Amino acid sequence: MNRKFQIFVESLSHSPDAATLQIAMNEIAIAFDLNRFAYLVSPRDSPAEVKLISNYPSDWTSHYLTNGYDRIDPVIGRVQRTTEPFGWGEGLWSKPLLSRENEFMDEAAVFGIRCGFTFPVHDESSRFAAVTFAADQCPRKFRRCFETHQQVLYLLAIMFHNEARRTLAPSRSVAGVLLSPREFECLKWAAKGKSAWDIGQIVGISRRTAAFHLDNARMKLEVRTIPQAVALLAASKRLNP
C-alpha cells in the first residue's frame, strides 16, 4: 500500500488536466477496494460553476450538473455544515431527508449510487469541496474500510483537492502575468465597459476597492491606463481562446 500511495502522490504532481487526476484517484481507490468516487467543488469566486471529477456513470454526472443537483444533494448539504468525514445512505443519515432529497437519492440509486462516505474539504477558495467514495450497497467490508482507513483517505482527499484546485482553476494569465482572482474579475468587467462603480455593484465591493484592484492589475501589466490593460486582456483571449 505504501508503494501505491507513493505512486498516487507522484501522479498528482504530474497531472496536467482533470482526466489524469481522475486516473490517479481511480487507481488509489481501487487499491482500497473502493470502486466509485467523486470530487465536487464550487469555487468561491464562481459559485455557479460547480466542477466535478468522477468515475460515476457519465449519464448521471451530466444529469447532476445540468440540473444543478448540488443544491438539493443531501450529501453536499451536509458537507457545507461540517468539517468531519461522514457516512451516508440507508441507516446512516444524521436526520430524516426531505421529500426532494429522497427523490434525488432514488434517482442516484438507479445509477448504482446508494451509500458511501464523504470527506469535506474547506478552504478560502471554495464554497464547498468534497471527495466521496460510493457504492450500490454498503456491506460490512465497505464500512470497515471507512473506519480503518479514515485518516489516510482524508489525507488523500485533501491532497487531491489541493492539486485539483490548481488544475481546474481558470487561467488568470494576461500577457504572461498572473493576476489575482479579484483583479482578473474586475478587469473582465472593465473590458465590458463597466466603470469602477458598476463593477463594485456587480461584484459586491465598494467603488474604491474595485478601482484598487483595477489599478493593481494595471501596474502588474506595466501599462499606464486601464484601457491599455483591457487591450492586453483582449489580446490574451485572442491568443488563448
Describe this structure in words.
- The relative contact order is 0.11.
- A hairpin with a 7-residue loop joins strand 1 and strand 2 (51-54).
- The protein folds into 2 domains: 2-168, Transcription factor LuxR-like, autoinducer-binding domain (Beta-Lactamase, 2-Layer Sandwich); 173-239, Arc Repressor Mutant, subunit A (Orthogonal Bundle).
- It is of the alpha+beta class and 241 residues long.
- It is elongated.
- Helices cover 54% and strands 15% of the residues.
- The model has no long low-confidence stretch (mean pLDDT 89).
- It contains 10 helices and 7 strands.
- The strands form 2 sheets. Strands 2-1-5-4-3 form a 5-stranded antiparallel sheet. Strands 6-7 form a two-stranded antiparallel ribbon.
Keywords:
241 residues; alpha+beta; Arc Repressor Mutant, subunit A; two-stranded antiparallel ribbon; elongated
Number of helices: 10
CATH topology of the largest domain: Beta-Lactamase
Mean pLDDT: 89
C-alpha Rg (nearest Å): 21 Å
* Overall number of strands: 7
Provide the spatial order of strands within the biggest beta sheet: 2-1-5-4-3
- CATH top level of the largest domain is Alpha Beta
Write the layout of secondary structure elements.
Elements: H1 2-13, H2 18-31, E1 36-43, E2 51-54, H3 58-66, H4 74-79, E3 86-88, H5 99-110, E4 115-120, E5 126-135, H6 140-168, E6 173-174, E7 177-178, H7 181-191, H8 196-203, H9 207-220, H10 226-239
Antiparallel strand pairs: 1-2, 1-5, 3-4, 4-5, 6-7
Helix pairs in contact: 1-2, 7-9, 7-10, 8-9
